[in-house]
Amino acid sequence: MNIKLSSLLAAILTLLLCFLWSSPLLWAFSTALRSEAQTVSGLQWLPDPSTVEAFVNVLTFGSLPTFFMNSVVTSLAITGVTLLITVLAAYSFSQLRFRGANLIFWTCMFGIIFPFEALVIPLFRQIYHMGLVDSLGGIILPQIVSPMVLFVFKRFFDQVPKDFREAAILDGASELQVLLKVYIPLSKNIIYAMAIITFIGAWNNFLWPFLVISSTENMTIPIGLTQLNDSYGVRYAQNMASALIGGMPVAIIYVLFQKRVASGFLAATGLKG
């Protein structure tokens, strides 16, 4: 009886926490499905009647599609280049022996100590002198190197038995072939996990794009959402609709691949699920 009571209490508590967590999201959906007049008419959870006018307006008449495509381009570029650089660097630090390897690696790890905000001014000066201010390249370039992702890949490569690499080299494989045919397949779950986390971080990044971008045509979703108000004032339904559309891709990606994220972290820490 005690076990049943504790299970019931746990279920009730879980449902309560789920409601508390999801209530802002439900309110956002409710607001987005109202007309602009309903959003200021009073407090109500359910739209009466419901309408998709706000979604149609932001997709048809606003700049949201431009913001969305800029976020897609920059996030995919940051994710792809980050994985390419960190996988190659992690394999080199883990499996190759060259002078100064440890010094270079721990110099890279030193970057974890500093928050991104502390590097904003020197990064902006560098991007300015490179002529990349107010461009998608200016958003992408400072974000393509991640010391944390490098550390995760190196940690995993260190755990792979040395015999795998030695056997492949004895069979005539080059270092690049060893990486592509041995280490990459073994680290598939970690690659998925790091790709998703990097993509979500790039998609949600507000501070750096806000500093480096000034023209509307180069804005990403987080910055663009701050530019949606017009001469008629705040349009709550359209703002909520834009926020939901902007956040939907990362939510869908995480829901679809959450098991791979968990498996990737278990593999990176040497644990078995």
Biggest β-sheet description: none
**Average pLDDT across residues?**
84
Shape: globular
Rounded Rg:
24 Å
DSSP strand (E) fraction? under 5%
State the separation between the terminal residues, measured CA to CA.
32 Å
Helical residue percent band: over 70%
Order of helices and strands: HHHHHHHHHHHHHH
Derived from helix and strand composition plus strand pairing, the structural class reads: mainly alpha
Tally of separate helices = 14
Model regions low in confidence, pLDDT < 50 over at least 5 residues: none
Report the count of strand segments: 0
How would you sum up this structure, described in words?
The chain is globular, with a radius of gyration of 24 Å. Helix 4 (64-95) packs across helix 11. The chain has helices at residues 2-32, 36-39, 53-60, 64-95, 101-109, 120-129, 136-140, 147-159, 162-170, 175-186, 188-204, 207-212, 221-224, 236-268. The two termini are 32 Å apart. By secondary structure, the chain is mainly α.
